[in-house]
Amino acid sequence: MTSQYISWVTPNLDIYSRGRPTKMTESSSNKLLNGDSCHWTSNGKKSSKNGFVKSHGLFQEPQKYRRPREKNQNVTHNSSLYKKPFAESFEETPLLVAVLTYMGYGILTIFGYLRDFLRHWSIEKCHVAREKEEQKDFVPLYQDFENFYTRNLYMRIRDNWNRPICSVPGAKMDLVERVSHDYNWTFEHTGRVVKDVINMGSYNYLGFAENIGACANAAIEATEKYGVGVGSTRCEIGSLDIHEELEQLVARFLGVESSMAFGMGFATNSMNIPALTGKGCLILSDELNHASLVLGARLSGSTIRVFKHNNMQSLEKLLRDAIAHGQPRTHRPWKKILIVVEGIYSMEGSIVRLPEVVALKKRYKAYLYLDEAHSIGALGPNGRGVVDYFGLDPKDVDIMMGTFTKSFGAAGGYIGGKQELIDYLRRHSHSALYATSMSPPVVQQIITSMRIIMGEDGTTLGIDRIRQLSENTTYFRRELREMGFIIYGNEDSPVVPMMLYMPAKIGAFGREMLKRNIGTVVVGFPATPIIESRARFCISAAHTREMLDTALKATSEVGDLLQLKYSRRERPLPSLGWMAEESLLQD
Amino acid sequence: MNFKNLREYLSWLYYQYLLITGIYVLEPWEKSIFNSILFSAIAMVIYTSYVFVPIHVRLALEFFSKIIGSQPESTVALMN
Ligand SMILES: Cc1ncc(COP(=O)(O)O)c(C=O)c1O
């Protein structure tokens, strides 16, 4: 096992051996660049020698003094690496909105302190967990800022979250109606059901969350044949023939040598990263990576350095520093360097700049861990994720991770890659050794839906769904933008975050949308930076044009009511009227 | 947005005020505390400016007219 794994252990440090970057001569930097097949300039043309001497990096820093309105207008850099335009935008927060948002949090914080004061002196009843009377001189267990935030801000608008659904979460769903008589401290079910709410929140990208149809039937058959529980781990007697079948299918779907499936996506990340890296290794992680990746990286005990979201200059700088300086104090080279990125970032709606990451990874001989939780199925002409979207070779990504929870309408996660990698993981990953294997109907659901996507069922249903999803995405994003909302992310990403900013609007948006029978997800701190609260729409192939239009109409209405159309891009003037004075607020 | 009458417009304005200050999420008694503090502060500002500003203006005028007292008479006459 160990000998097989040697190639994993030390990255080739040939760049280091050519001298420190600061001393690099013109000829060596040119040699380096000629070694690569592409030319790395921002306009795709070959630049003069001077340009390379000034910045040795693969990617040149953008000019410092320019402060554009967009946080990063990602279109221009390294366009030679992209086969099609890469349009991603993050419109800057309008200054007045930012100031008002902070003011709102300030006011709510003051009231939070007031309420805490009242609770402390037992003037009002305290509903939250607190120290027992006989333990009150101990170090407090229930006191920190998040707790303050939960108690005094989240509690007030808690009715927007954790809402029970009582049907299949497809394009439409039924909600359990609930009321609160004590301002969200407790809820009561009224026994009624809110019918046919349009679901704009589930990660049901390809619409495979169904209770009828081929997948559901296959899952029923599997249940009849195998039952639901397995009752053992994969390496004992929990390995069924359909597990093997699933893994072969996933490998074929991804275009990798081998793959392995796990019962839970979160555990796939948090248990497999520690199996891959350890002390003396370096993990370069995007700042917006999912909690499971962060947890995995922390559990591994490796050094973690964080680069700015999707910022290749930042990543390259970290890579260069890592190679030039090695480990802190000892200055030994790192055992391995693992870059951890996601395909689609679920809060930002941005797509990883994979061609550039792959170029960097190849140049600096690092390994790449790609989490395709949201992108698998949802991106690419064949639904095979970001690799397919950019037309790259799956072999360039060392570890392909993804989940079955989203596009496949099932549960679990996978890891795909080289045969040696998967063999290694089978013996060393905690979630392979200690977790009970996947339930058969779930496995069957994945197999059937994946076959449909691949077109192996002999129909074009899968490809139709993929096309429908991308059409819906383009339509929905375009309409929202034209209405004047600030939306984040890539044009092609089915995750559409729409900015709300102010704390009260988080609550108001969720409630107003539900009044119009649209279910949305609203997100605030800690999942986002404190002022960038947002609503998040997840587009699905199951949405029909009528549903999208209904949702858009409701969003527009609520947007007018709550004054959410912050965007200051060029667009047709809104109708004047009573609006005229109020629009001052939005500048 | 189109409003049918002034009342609807005013209630919309109040709603905006609730949202922007964040007191939309507060309980009614907290809302009234906030409103009464804010409005009494504003009322006080208006009242003090009503009471004191004319006095200060007059004092300032007197002060300046003293400074320019040495000027030809016509200017002083203009100041008065
Ligand atoms: C990027 C990413 N990785 C992993 C997961 C965890 O997957 P699962 O929900 O299957 O446990 C998620 C889930 O939201 C995710 O967004």
UniProtKB/TrEMBL annotation, chain A:
One of its GO terms (molecular function) is pyridoxal phosphate binding. SUPFAM superfamilies: PLP-dependent transferases. InterPro entries: Aminotrans_II_pyridoxalP_BS (IPR001917), Aminotransferase_I/II_large (IPR004839), AON_synthase_class-II (IPR050087), PyrdxlP-dep_Trfase (IPR015424), PyrdxlP-dep_Trfase_major (IPR015421), PyrdxlP-dep_Trfase_small (IPR015422). One of its GO terms (biological process) is ceramide biosynthetic process. Pfam families: Aminotran_1_2. The chain crosses the membrane at residues 95-114. The keyword Endoplasmic reticulum applies. Keywords: Acyltransferase, Endoplasmic reticulum, Lipid metabolism, Membrane, Pyridoxal phosphate, Sphingolipid metabolism, Transferase, Transmembrane, Transmembrane helix. It is found in: Endoplasmic reticulum membrane. Belongs to the class-II pyridoxal-phosphate-dependent aminotransferase family. This is serine C-palmitoyltransferase. It comes from Perca flavescens (American yellow perch).
UniProtKB/TrEMBL annotation, chain B:
The keyword Coiled coil does not apply. Keywords: Endoplasmic reticulum, Lipid metabolism, Membrane, Sphingolipid metabolism, Transmembrane, Transmembrane helix. GO terms for molecular function: serine C-palmitoyltransferase activity. Its main location: endoplasmic reticulum. GO terms for cellular component: endoplasmic reticulum membrane; serine palmitoyltransferase complex. InterPro entries: Ser_palmitoyltrfase_ssu-like (IPR024512). One of its GO terms (biological process) is endoplasmic reticulum organization. It is a multi-pass membrane protein. Pathway: Sphingolipid metabolism; Lipid metabolism; sphingolipid metabolism. Pfam families: SPT_ssu-like (PF11779). The chain crosses the membrane at residues 9-26, 32-53. It is found in: Endoplasmic reticulum membrane. Component of the serine palmitoyltransferase (SPT) complex, which is composed of SPTLC1, SPTLC2 or SPTLC3 and SPTSSA or SPTSSB. The heterodimer consisting of SPTLC1 and SPTLC2/SPTLC3 forms the catalytic core of the enzyme, while SPTSSA or SPTSSB subunits determine substrate specificity. SPT also interacts with ORMDL proteins, especially ORMDL3, which negatively regulate SPT activity in the presence of ceramides. Belongs to the SPTSS family. SPTSSB subfamily. Component of the serine palmitoyltransferase multisubunit enzyme (SPT) that catalyzes the initial and rate-limiting step in sphingolipid biosynthesis by condensing L-serine and activated acyl-CoA (most commonly palmitoyl-CoA) to form long-chain bases. The SPT complex is composed of SPTLC1, SPTLC2 or SPTLC3 and SPTSSA or SPTSSB. Within this complex, the heterodimer consisting of SPTLC1 and SPTLC2/SPTLC3 forms the catalytic core. Within the SPT complex, SPTSSB stimulates the catalytic activity and plays a role in substrate specificity. This is Serine palmitoyltransferase small subunit B. It comes from Perca flavescens.
